[in-house]
Specification:
By secondary structure, the chain is mostly helical. About 80% of the residues lie in helices and about 0% in strands. The protein contains 6 helices and no strands. Helix 1 (about 10-35) crosses helix 3 (about 60-80), helix 2 (about 40-50) crosses helix 3 (about 60-80) and helix 4 (about 85-105) runs antiparallel to helix 5. The longest helix has 27 residues, at about 10-35. It is elongated, with a radius of gyration of 20 Å. Pfam families: DoxX.
């Protein structure tokens, strides 16, 4: 299948847009986690309190709530840098699925709408991973490829 170049978008522009969107999402997630790291037990308790009138047992609220800030922090850090980007994005999207379940169970539709926007951004970044050229992942891959080329030229 031959791909025709798109007359409206240049690869360079998409790479820049992808990089900026990735960094913005990464910063957002990083700071969500970073601001909660100092009080993870308090954050978890606030989640337990929020879900007290639902059918979900307290341990099934508390356990994930203890992990949310840590996952947000790590995913945000990795996505911002573009390090193991695809795995970090998939992990972040998985977290959004869990969070979406919770907010819709609480019928908090405004937050659910906001979370759908996050999901859309995760979708765009995962689907557009081939544009992740300005990242540690891409740098590492270029370095690895260059090293392999040098190694193969030395053996011939």
């Amino acid at each position: 299948m031959h791909h025709q170049p798109n007359p409206w978008f240049r690869r360079r522009d998409i790479v820049i847009a992808y990089t900026l969107l990735r960094i913005v999402l990464g910063i957002n997630f990083f700071n969500h986690g970073f601001t909660r790291l100092g009080n993870i037990p308090g954050f978890a308790q606030s989640m337990v309190d929020l879900f007290q009138d639902t059918f979900i047992p307290e341990p099934l609220v508390r356990a994930p709530a203890l992990l949310v800030p840590i996952v947000e922090f790590i995913v945000g850090f990795l996505v911002t840098l573009g390090l193991v980007t695809q795995a970090a994005l998939v992990t972040g999207f998985g977290l959004m699925i869990v969070l979406m379940y919770g907010v819709t169970l609480l019928q908090n539709w405004d937050t659910a709408t906001s979370q759908l926007i996050y999901c859309l951004v995760f979708f765009i970044l995962i689907a557009g991973n081939s544009f992740n050229d300005i990242s540690i992942d891409a740098w590492w891959q270029r370095r690895k490829t260059r090293s392999q080329r040098l190694d193969s030229s030395e053996t011939h």
